[in-house]
Amino acid sequence: MNARSIGQRLGPGLIYAAAAVGVSHLVQATRAGGDYGFAMIPIIIVIALIKYPGIRFGGDYAVATGRTLIHSYTAISVWVTMIYAAIILLTMAFVSAAIVLVVNGLLQSVLGFSATDFNIAAVLLGVTGVLLFTGKYRLLESLNKLVVPAFTVLIFGSTIMLAFQTGWTAIDFALPAVNAVLIMYIVQLAGWMLTPMDGSVLQSLWTAAKSEQLGRRFSAAESQLDFNLGYAISLVLALCFLVMGASVLYGSGIEVAAGSGPFATQVIGLFSTVIGEWSFPLIGLTALLVMYSTLLTVLDGFARNLATLADIALPLKIARRYEIAVVIIVVSAIAVIGAFMRSFTTFIDFAGALTFLLAPLYAGLNHRAMFFSPEVPDRLRPNAVLKIWSIFGIVVMSVVAVLYVYLRWVS
Residue 281 and residue 286: Cα distance in Å, rounded? Predict the structure, then answer.
């Protein structure tokens, strides 16, 4: 198989990996390392394993039916359609707001200025909306084909250098006492890691789009290879950020910054600590481009999600559905920042907890789509192992979600 053939077989999974290098990696994984050291490595691996079937089923369903998971959800009943519409409107506002706050922090850190998070975030969202309207983001998209691999190499290289400098012992991997604080921390981490569970819907949208691009149905083998590669890359990168946070911040007495700008400076500083102070502007600019690419990708995915839902569920066809969806997302994200933003890290944690509480619902709907939808041919249904794996993940996430609600609001 030559390089061009391999390139044609890859797409949605790598988009997933690129989109994942956002809040979950730069913020939550780094903080987890800084707060708990290497003890969070097995936790992140377990989170990734539990969420794997539910997220993968997005691409599997698109391959099996030629349609997106949104079609599966809306086919159940009007009530499910209405509930899904409410959920997507809620999550897209909070997730988009969280991502743009990270971009805002990096922008302030790289350019060396200070401004209110609300004002800069609003400008960034407005500019991003215009770029999505006009398609002018293609240059940035092309640039990121070079920037994302370069950033990945920087992450790997810095992590390896730190690994040799850090003396690891078994005690470094020991979890602290399990209590309410630790459980809530893990939930806030799991909501983002490796991506929120609604990434499965975006995966189905991207896979369906890839099939259109190829002019044929993306095969199950191609889709699974592509997704597994992207998911593995995303997991390894998350662990790299955690190791960097643990190596530099954990036990150092340095407090993890609460503001978006200071936190971004701290993250970029992790790299420059290893590579050298001269690299701060270069790493900062690279991280900014990667993170802004994530913002574009996620906003575009949410807009396609909302436009597809409107196309399926509404009796009247609305012109320029995509553009209207972009405006709704931008306005709602700005409103959420204005109403809820008090502390950067607190807001990120709140959004993480929200996405985790919704994760069992997405996982359950995706399980139903793959194993009980009449549209999926039997030969394309996942095997028994993946079925049991999926059920186990749904049960675990449901139990933990109920426990979080009890600890957070009842006890």
Answer: 9
SS3 category, 377: coil
List of residues 6+ apart from 393 with CB closer than 8 A: 49, 50, 51, 52, 53, 54, 363
The residue ranges of DSSP E strands in 199-343, in sequence order, are none
Contacts of 252 (CB under 8 A, 6+ apart): none
Rounded to whole angstroms, what are the CA distances from 344 to 23, 37, 51, 74, 121?
Answer: 11, 21, 26, 35, 12
- Write the DSSP symbol of residue 27: I
How wide is the angle at C-alpha 372 spanned by C-alphas 366 and 375, nearest 5°? Answer: 90
- Smallest Cα–Cα separation from 207: which of 230, 191, 190? 230
Number of Cβ within 10 Å of residue 113's Cβ equals 10
* pTM score: 0.91
What the block records as the tokens of 66 is: 């030629």
**b/e per residue 251-270 (b: at least 16 CB within 10 A):** eeeeebbebbbbbbbbbbbb
pLDDT values of the chain reduced to their tens digit, one per residue, 411 residues: 433 444 444 567 667 776 777 788 889 999 999 889 889 999 999 999 999 999 999 999 999 998 999 999 999 999 999 999 999 999 999 999 999 999 999 998 888 888 888 999 999 999 999 988 887 666 655 666 677 777 888 888 888 888 777 666 666 677 778 899 999 999 999 999 988 999 899 889 888 877 776 677 777 888 888 889 889 988 999 999 998 888 888 877 777 777 788 888 888 888 787 788 888 888 888 888 888 888 888 898 899 899 999 998 887 777 889 899 999 999 999 999 998 887 888 899 999 999 999 999 999 999 999 999 999 999 999 999 999 999 999 999 999 999 999 999 987
CA nearest neighbour of 226 among 247, 242, 210, 202: 210
DSSP 192-229: HSSS-TTHHHHHHHHHHHHHHHHTSPPPHHHHHHHHHH
| Distance (Å) of CA 153 to CA 21, 76, 172, 233, 274 | 13, 45, 26, 12, 14
